Every structure is written in structure tokens, then in C-alpha cells.
Amino acid sequence: MKTLIIVSHPDIETSNSQQFLKEALAMRKDITYHHLETVYPDGYIDARREQELIRQHDRIIFQFPFYWYSSPPMLKQWQDTVLIEHFAYGDQGDALRDKSFGIVVVIGVAKHAYQMGGKEQFSIDQLLTPYQAMAHKTGMKLLKPFPIYQFAYMTDRAKQSLLIAYQQYMTLSDVDSLSQRTQWFIDRLSEESAVFELEEIQHMIEDLQLEIEELRLYLDQKG
Amino acid sequence: MKTLIIVSHPDIETSNSQQFLKEALAMRKDITYHHLETVYPDGYIDARREQELIRQHDRIIFQFPFYWYSSPPMLKQWQDTVLIEHFAYGDQGDALRDKSFGIVVVIGVAKHAYQMGGKEQFSIDQLLTPYQAMAHKTGMKLLKPFPIYQFAYMTDRAKQSLLIAYQQYMTLSDVDSLSQRTQWFIDRLSEESAVFELEEIQHMIEDLQLEIEELRLYLDQKG
Fold first, then answer.
1. A134 vs B: CB within 8 A
2. For the residues A82-90, what does the mean pLDDT come to?
3. What pLDDT does B2 receive?
4. Looking at chain A, which residue has its C-alpha nearest residue B67?
5. Distance from CA of B131 to the nearest CA of A (A)
């Protein structure tokens, strides 16, 4: 599976979160990191080139800071320029059909603000509805969004967890599958360069234990 | 009441609907028509100038074609550049507080497509949630959105109705108030340059009749 991460950030060099995510992807040849403001510094997007890029990948990710409950303007321009009729929708417009689509959104405000009665009043799901509608119109399979709240206040431990979840979001065909996540760990552990916090491995083993307990309970009830 | 219409359209000269709306506003000195792509052809927005413009008006309108369930990139850039902390939100960020805020959105698809089970799956209200969240954060009073569906297929009669509703949306402090709409008609009828379809006046009189009937019914029930 090949993943295209379309990143939009008007000032990415100063963004610690974006730099962290970029480094998390180093050396993976099944992932294309594509920062629009770097590729198109004058703001003019080569629609043909972008369409070709889309065709070469199976998973499309939008990654951006959450400014006014949406993306920076450059990603919107990309949508309006690249995802045109007869390519993305309408007659013979099936270039995105059956690809998976995810959203990595970096948010400065705390998670609990995004709910009815919270400071921001609306949930992330509600605010991302325009992207859900886009996935629907283009026939893409929508992944659960990947929100990153208040990166600046994260502990090193939290960042390590984030890094693993982020890499899995980009590479697993079923992001929620326990067996895929387990296999991912086994693969990483066998790599020479692997550096893991023991705690992460502990979490993984605990997840597996929980799954086994649930299966036992189910069998007991059946018997 | 002074109204600022912030229009974003990348190619406005070719848009019949936008030209129609622009002409509908001719010669009104309480309305400022502000097309971003014309004012800032190189894409760089003068945030101070825009903030001053906001301060001079009581109603803020976003007017744009509905591309990928949102505005063109230029309006998003305007939001990100102009509506900054300490101006639009946060400490002393009360420049928009208590202004009214409306959205005129021009939509190429039919109205019935925008609902659960419809072709677009989501309602206009759902898709405009990011703007609702913006109005909430900045303390603006949200007007009902003003969607214009399939302008290209509208009859002349429908366009005449649209023109009146649009002018009222821009100028009435309470857009839904029957007494304000009535007064608006009386004012216009006394203008020398007034040109109305008889039908529109008939609609207005019918609305008034209905109101009177409802009041009579209410009085009968009480008596």
C-alpha cells in the first residue's frame, strides 16, 4: 500500500509538530511526503502532476494545522484545482474511488473544548464534515480522523505513542486491527534500527492480553 | 446599519450569479461590496486595512461559490490573516462581537441533493458548521445562511424574488421580521427609480393577509 501525505502549512519550518511528523516518516519508501507550500512556492499548482501523484497511491492523507476549523488556503486551492470534474467526480471521474482517505489535523486547543457546551461548541467530526462530503463524492473510504491536540504540551512519552499511532495510520490497511498492529510491532522489533520505549511494548502486550480475556469470556458463555 | 460584503470568487467576471448580485447592490451607500481577488490581485492581504473595514460595519457577510463544500482559498486566507488573536478572539479580541454575520453561498447543485440520503449526503447547515463555529468564537450573531441554488436555471420571476430577498438580507436588522419587510416595500415603492414586478407586491400583500388571519384566529381562541 502506498500513501500520499498532502501537507499544507504556510510556515512549516517553525512548526515543531510538523517537523516531528516529518521526521517520523524518514526513510519509508511506501510513503510520499508532499508539502504543498514547498513544492509550489509561487502558489500555482500543477494539476496534471498532482493527478498523476494521486493515481500512484492507494491512501490519500490531508495533514494540516486547524486554522478557523479548516485547512490553510493552499490545501483548499489544491482541492479546487486538482479534484475537478471527470477526474474526481462526474462522468469517468473515478480516479479516487476506493482509495482510503485520512485527515491528520494539528489542533492548538484542548480536546475537551470540542464538544457541545465546550469552548468551541462543535466536535471535530462536525467541523470536518466538508471533508467527509468530499470523501463521499469522490468514492473514497474514510478513515477516522487523526487529531493531534496541543502538541506543545505533550510529554516525551505521549510523543512516542503519537509517533507509533501516526506511523500505523499511514501504513496499516486496517488502522484499528489488533492483528495488524501486533504484526507491525513484530516487524519493527526485528529491525536493527528499532528504538522503542519498553512502555509501548508493554501497552501492546496488554492489548493482546485483553483480547485473549475477551475471547475466553465469550467461549465460557458459549460453553 | 452598515453592511460589509466580503466576496471571494477566483473568476468573478465570468460568473453570472455574482454579476447579478453585484448589480442588485448598485448605488447603496450603506453597503460595501468588497471582492477580495480584485482588491488583492497578488494574493497578499492588508490585514490592518481589513480590520479597519470590519470596525466600520455592523453586519459582515461572506459571499462565495460553494467549491468542495467551502469557500475559495482567498476567503480562507482572509480569515487566517485578518481574524487573528487579540482582534477577533482571545484577550481584548472583541472587534467582531455583537455584529451580525451572514453567508451567501452560490451552489451549482439542486437543493434536494443536500440532505441525508441525497446525492451530497449532508445539509448546507452541516457543511457550514466551520463558519458557525467562527461566529461563536468571535461573538457574532449568526443569520440564517442565504443559499442560492442553480442560478443558471432560474426563471426571471425567481431572479426577481431572489433580488428582493438578497437586498433585505443585506439591510434589515431582523431579516425575518414581517413589519421590517413591509416597511422595506413601502420605502422602495416611494422611490422614483423603483421597478417592481406586480407579483412581488402581491406576495407581500398575501403575507400581510396571512398575518392578519393568524392574529384573528388567535383573538377568536382567546375570546
1. yes
2. 97
3. 97
4. A80
5. 8
Contact B76, B70 (CB under 8 A): yes
A122: contact with B, CB 8 A cutoff: yes
How far apart, in whole angstroms, are the C-alpha atoms of residue B33 and residue B10? Answer: 16
Q: How far is B106 from chain A (nearest CA, A)?
A: 15
Bridge partner residues of B89 (DSSP): B85
Distance CA A196, CA B144 (A): 53
Question: ipTM more than 0.85?
Answer: yes
CA angle (B65, B38, B169) in 5-degree steps? 50
Which of A46-51's residues contact partners 24+ apart within 8 Å by CB, and which partners?
A47/A81, A47/A82, A47/A84, A50/A78, A50/A81, A50/A82, A51/A82, A51/A87, A51/A95
Best of A9, A70, A78, A85 to mutate (most B CBs within 10 Å, chain B): A70
Torsion of CA A41, A47, A50, A51, to 10 degrees: 170
Q: Quick check: A60 pLDDT over 80?
A: yes
Grid cell at residue A139? 468514492
